[in-house]
Design goal:
The complex is a heterodimer of chains A (about 200) and B (about 475).
Chain A (H helix, E strand, L loop, with lengths): L5 E9 L6 H4 L19 H4 L16 E4 L11 H9 L3 E4 L4 H10 L2 E4 L2 H13 L4 E5 L4 E4 L6 E4 L4 H9 L3 H6 L2 H9 L10
Parallel strand pairs in A: 1-2, 2-3, 3-4
Antiparallel strand pairs in A: 1-5, 5-6, 6-7
Chain B lengths: L4 H8 L1 E3 L6 E4 L2 E4 L5 H10 L9 E4 L16 H17 L2 E3 L9 H7 L8 E4 L13 E4 L2 H10 L1 E4 L3 E8 L8 H12 L7 E6 L1 H4 L3 H9 L8 E3 L4 H7 L8 H12 L11 E6 L6 E3 L7 E3 L13 H14 L14 E4 L1 H4 L2 H11 L9 E4 L4 H9 L2 H7 L3 E2 L20 E4 L14 E4 L2 H10 L12
Parallel strand pairs in B: 3-4, 3-6, 4-5, 6-7, 9-10, 9-12, 10-11, 15-16, 15-18, 16-17, 18-19
Antiparallel strand pairs in B: 1-2, 2-8, 13-14
Helix pairs in contact in B: 2-5, 6-8, 13-15, 13-16
The chains are: A alpha/beta (about 200), B alpha/beta (about 475).
The structure holds iron/sulfur cluster.
The site of iron/sulfur cluster (SF4) has 14 residues of chain B, from helix 4 and helix 12.
């Protein structure tokens, strides 16, 4: 997994709440058996609309998505995270995330920065007045900032310590857990005999 | 201080606990399907890791498979590749698979309980958010993403931060013509789609105890629709009766030891929850969704709401957008909404009890001329059982289509999809934009409401049928 320390990039305002994973990537795009190539499915139902934010030239090449509350609710499809990453996003800023989506993001290296709703609204307003403005996410400091001078928005964001550490180090979960294989062996020895087996 | 059911199950599965880290939880059962597993198996191959416990893993094909022409190869090439990839992966890694055509094939959340693999006090995971279904047995069951699927395959554990606990106490009795589905839709409308976020929810109270195992699965299935990490119900005699004698249920002395342990899992009297919600089952009416998330619902007796009815700005905007997408006008009585298609099935309501209820209601009646109705059993065994009871004949005589088992129109990955603008009353769990096919419009309903709607051609309650 690629390490994440800080990232600065063009931010796209997605002025919607409750963007579920079916909107992020509809089921018909889930059929690939690789981790790449999902960018075409990203927000597929909305991309055909010329007014959709990602079709705006100022937001071409956006790498930070700023969305309303409850982003990534719904299904467990990690494809939603891959679609965002395949498209070029490194981070999503929102007031609240779907649990599974947030977990998946942490494991794939997409930063989900949880901020207060007023911060999202302030960034949206800034991006409306100055489309193409870059947003910086500093994972070391846990801060999000955008704009300069009076128009500057700056706030801290929430992310749990463990996910932050793994993102900073670019660590693979499986390798970390396998380093505790002894604990797993010990636990397995205590499992009751009535627990079912599939084979 | 005492502990809750969820805390007891959690504590029993902690392999490793360290400051500043999530707990490492042991997984008793890992369910797999074709959509969320290929990249996980790929990851194993790339790092040269085996599946640690193939004997705690089981796979089936459900999301992509067609429900007609079952004897032919899957026509959609990409779907076929995904299914074939699962077959190759299971073969290579020694995982038990129930493929299309197998008698134990079906929706992953239907076959676990059916085989007796889902048992109280277990941890169950699957790369699928409706894994919460298995909580009906008093198991701690939750959906995981593909990276976690790989993690469980490689280690039989998953790191998890302990969520808070909530109890939903459902008092009173459900009235005739209402069901577990109406109850859970009412709950989600009240608590909104984010209301359960960060919590493991325990459902309890007289109304919950009175429910069958099937109905309890319907409730737990939809836990994720209001954001909960998992939903569970304490095991009781009904749970034990359901399990007894099933293929993978413990036998003999093992059974006795298991039951004794399962009884000890109930939440202690002095245990504290972080939050409590109380719901009166007697006040629940037949309920439908009018919007594009499962929280946007109302009793069938109501009108389509107006965005102005919502105080919270985000909800107002969401309602506005939902009405546009759904092609609805505020103030229209919900009963006046004409429906093109009725879908009876899915892991929410595709079990034998759902089919029995629906068949009893539709017997001697006919699906309205303007409406089509698909009946899709949740598993091959559900289908065979229904056919043995003659339910298929009842559905066919009523003009409904009787299909093969799978996820089908719940998410439209197989050929069963809505056309743009097509309106569907669906017993599934998600009414997201495009969920059942691009541009399709979904109203979530109970099996009873689905039948009444199919017969009358517009959203309707079972009591409306008395006049037909
Ligand atoms: S029936 Fe629907 S919700 Fe259930 S597993 Fe299949 S696609 Fe998911």
């Amino acid at each position: 997994m690629e390490k994440f320390t800080t990232h600065t990039g063009v931010a796209a305002p997605l002025r919607r709440s409750n963007v579920d994973t079916d909107q992020i990537i509809p089921a018909e795009y889930l059929k690939r058996v690789t981790r790449s190539g999902f960018e075409d499915g990203l927000f597929a139902a909305w991309r055909g609309d010329p007014d959709f934010v990602l079709n705006h030239p100022a937001f071409a090449g956006a790498s930070v998505l700023v969305a309303g509350p409850d982003f990534g609710t719904g299904s467990s499809r990690e494809h939603a995270v891959w679609a965002l990453q395949n498209y070029g996003f490194r981070a999503v800023v929102a007031p609240r995330f779907g649990d599974i989506f947030r977990g998946n993001s942490g494991k794939s290296g997409l930063l989900t920065a949880q901020v207060e709703e007023k911060t999202v609204i302030a960034i949206w307003d800034l991006l409306d007045t100055a489309p193409g403005t870059e947003v910086t996410l500093d994972l070391l400091e846990r801060t999000v900032s955008a704009g300069v001078g009076l128009a500057q928005v700056r706030d801290s964001f929430d992310i749990d310590d463990y996910t932050r550490w793994r993102l900073l180090e670019g660590l693979d979960d499986v390798a970390i857990t396998l380093s505790h294989a002894d604990d797993i062996d010990t636990y397995e020895a205590t499992r009751p005999s009535y627990k079912p087996a599939t084979l | 201080m005492g502990r809750t059911l969820a805390e007891k199950v959690w504590d029993e599965h902690v392999v490793r606990r360290a400051d500043g880290e999530p707990d490492l939880l042991y997984i008793d059962l890992h369910l797999i399907h074709e959509v969320t597993s290929p990249q996980a198996f790929d990851g194993l191959r790339l790092s040269g890791r085996p599946v640690r416990r193939a004997d705690l893993t089981i796979a089936t094909e459900d999301h992509n498979i067609p429900t007609t022409d079952l004897d032919k190869p899957i026509a959609d090439l990409v779907s076929r590749t995904q299914v074939e990839t699962l077959r190759r992966n299971c073969e290579e890694f020694g995982v038990r698979l129930h493929p299309m055509g197998d008698i134990d094939q079906g929706i992953v959340h239907i076959i676990g309980p059916q085989l007796g693999l889902t048992q109280p006090g277990m941890t169950v995971v699957c790369g699928d958010s409706h894994t919460s279904t298995h909580g009906a047995f008093g198991a701690l069951a939750f959906g995981i993403g593909t990276s976690e699927v790989e993690h469980v395959l490689a280690t039989q554990t998953v790191p998890q931060t302990k969520p808070k606990t909530m109890v939903v106490t459902v008092v009173g009795d459900l009235r005739d013509g209402t069901s577990a589905k109406d109850l859970v839709l009412t709950l989600i409308a009240q608590e909104t789609t984010g209301g359960g976020q960060g919590y493991i929810v325990e459902y309890r109270g007289d109304a919950i105890s009175a429910l069958s195992m099937e109905a309890r699965m319907t409730i737990c299935n939809m836990s994720i629709e209001w954001g909960a990490k998992a939903g569970l119900i304490a095991p009781d005699e009904k749970t034990f009766d359901f399990l007894h004698g099933r293929e993978h249920a413990p036998r003999g002395v093992d059974w006795d030891a298991a039951v004794e342990h399962w009884r000890s899992l109930a939440t202690d009297d002095d245990a504290a929850f972080d939050k409590e919600v109380v719901l009166d089952a007697a006040a629940v009416e037949p309920f439908v969704t009018w919007g594009t998330n499962p929280g946007q619902g109302a009793p069938l007796s109501a009108d389509v709401p107006s965005p102005e009815d919502f105080a919270e700005p985000n909800q107002r905007v969401a309602a506005q957008r939902a009405l546009e997408y759904m092609g609805l006008t505020a103030g229209t009585p919900l009963r006046d909404i004409a429906v093109d298609t009725v879908f009876l099935g899915s892991c929410t309501n595709g079990r034998i009890e759902d089919l029995r209820t629906a068949a009893a209601l539709i017997e001697g009646r006919r699906v309205a001329g303007s409406t089509r109705m698909l009946v899709v059993p949740g598993s091959v065994r559900v289908r065979l059982q229904a056919e043995q009871e003659g339910l298929d004949v009842i559905f066919k005589q009523a003009g409904a289509e009787w299909r093969g088992a799978g996820c089908s129109m719940c998410l439209g990955m197989n050929p069963d999809q809505l056309a743009p603008g097509e309106r569907c009353a669906s017993t599934s769990n998600r009414n997201f934009e495009g969920r059942q096919g691009k541009g399709g419009r979904t109203h979530l309903v109970s099996p009873e409401v689905a039948v009444a709607t199919g017969v009358l051609g517009h959203l309707a309650a079972p009591s409306d049928l008395a006049t037909v």
